[in-house]
Write a structure and sequence with these properties.
Keywords: Hydrolase. One of its GO terms (molecular function) is dGTPase activity. By secondary structure, the protein is mostly helical. The protein contains 19 helices and two strands. It folds into three domains: about 160 residues, Hypothetical protein af1432 (Orthogonal Bundle); about 160 residues, no CATH class; about 80 residues, no CATH class. It has a two-stranded antiparallel ribbon with strand order 1-2. The longest helix is centred in the last third of the chain and has 29 residues.
Length: about 425
């Protein structure tokens, strides 16, 4: 861990040694500080709740859906693989992958949009900023000397590795990593770091997120019958995908079109495409996937090949750029342009044929309305609807007459809900309100 200094290993609030050691047997815990950090995330309630939060299709759809939790486990695994290939601390990269989506609310990005609209007058909502808030404030693990929660009290380097967007909210910028009332925490994390520059471990996590999203969301779309890979070999659909990729992700349309041609030439892509039989016999982006054992093996071989393609090319290119020891702010991840275009293409496939599916959009409207109904009910009932862990914060906000703070507490509550619990609260609130009438 020579790259990592005492400054990197520091925790904002000193902790006493564990008191439950067994007599005089000694302490045989040989884990590194980053291994401790990883364990804290792994054992957190916030991580477990991701099991009932949407990734692409809802957690209750299908027998083996990907959820925010399984996605996070996959991002952690890919992050660890890239880190190992670069001789960067794998625990640090993996914990960033585990934690990167902890702040995401029910219903994925749709829930994020709803909460951002709801919180317009108190600083908005952003999943990455909520992640920081959970890790440093909301998740109950460590208390300060004053008795306030400091979250998991992770090391500075661990928290920095989770920061995709290491800045507070700015005009004209949709993404940010901390709310205004968490700015002092972000300042502590970023002490000595280059302005607005992600550390290498955060870059690894961010790219691993893109890889997992691009490959596995397409896999889920194929299994759900919404994606037909023959679109990659269809000139009109490939051109439309290239345009969408430019509009949505800012990628070169020419590079993306070339990426479609390259991927279409991969034998595993052709093999999987031949298992997708479209409803009308034409290539329109969705079809009926026939999941025989051999077809499922082909699909899994494809996802494995693509992840390996993206990971190995990134490691090779980064190593070609840097000869010395890597970690923190020594070196940056070097992603080949062609590989970036291929990943962007697959992300666009998921957006075009899954996210923009008519049934999916109708469900999103219902989800958006549900979040607003529950928020209205929580604002009315206060402690009667909030979890006890938030009662002290609510009382303080009420005593101060701070409406923005009350709204932030309600947003914290809803963001913590699983989708099952949100729907249960919505039904219970409707029943109570009917009784009031």
């Amino acid at each position: 861990m020579s790259v990592y200094t005492d400054h990197d290993l520091a925790r904002r609030h000193p902790e006493q040694p564990k008191a439950a050691q067994l007599g005089k047997t000694g302490n045989y815990d040989r884990r590194s500080p980053f291994s401790h950090d990883r364990a804290r995330i792994l054992h957190s309630g916030a991580l477990r709740r991701l099991a009932d939060k949407t990734q692409v299709v809802g957690p209750q759809q299908g027998d083996v859906p990907r959820t925010r939790l399984t996605h996070s486990l996959e991002v952690a695994q890919i992050s660890g693989g890239i880190a190992s290939g670069l001789d960067v601390n794998a625990d640090l990269a993996e914990l960033a992958g585990l934690a990167h989506d902890i702040g995401h609310p029910p219903y994925g990005h749709n829930g994020e949009h709803a909460l951002n609209d709801l919180a317009a007058d108190c600083g908005g909502f952003e999943g990455n900023a909520q992640t920081l808030r959970i890790l440093t404030r909301l998740e109950p693990k460590v208390l300060s000397d004053e008795g306030t929660s400091v979250g998991l009290n992770l090391s500075r380097a661990a928290l920095d590795a989770v920061c995709k967007y290491p800045w507070t909210r700015r005009p004209g910028m949709r993404k940010f990593g901390a709310y205004a009332d968490d700015a002092d925490t972000l300042a502590w994390i970023r002490d000595g770091a280059p302005t607005d520059h992600k550390c290498l471990e955060a870059q690894i996590m961010d790219w691993s997120d893109d890889i997992a999203y691009s490959v596995h969301d397409v896999e889920d779309g194929i299994l759900a019958g919404r994606i037909d890979l023959r679109v990659l070999g269809d000139d009109s659909e490939a051109a439309a995908l290239a345009t969408d990729a430019h509009t949505t992700f800012g990628l070169s349309a020419d590079r993306v079109a070339a990426a479609a041609a390259r991927l279409w030439e991969l034998p595993h892509v052709r093999e999987v495409a031949n298992t997708c039989v479209s409803n009308s016999g034409t290539v329109v982006g969705s079809g009926n996937y026939f999941g025989s054992r051999s077809n499922l093996v082909a699909l899994k071989q494809l996802t494995s090949e693509l992840v390996g393609r993206f990971v190995n090319s990134t490691i090779a290119t980064t190593r070609a750029h840097y000869a010395g020891e890597l970690g923190r702010y020594r070196g940056d991840l070097a992603i080949p342009h062609d590989i970036e275009a291929e990943v962007g293409l697959l992300k666009t496939v998921a957006v075009r044929y899954v996210m923009h599916n008519v049934d999916h959009l109708k469900a999103q409207e219902r989800q958006y309305d549900r979040i607003f109904r529950v928020a209205s009910w929580l604002l009315q009932t206060g402690e009667g609807g909030l979890d006890p862990v938030l009662w002290d914060d609510w009382k303080a906000a009420c005593a101060a007459g701070d409406d923005a703070r009350r709204m932030r507490i309600v947003v914290d509550q809803i963001a913590s809900y699983t989708e099952t619990r949100l729907e249960r609260v919505d039904k219970a609130a409707a029943g109570l309100q009917a009784g009031w009438g």
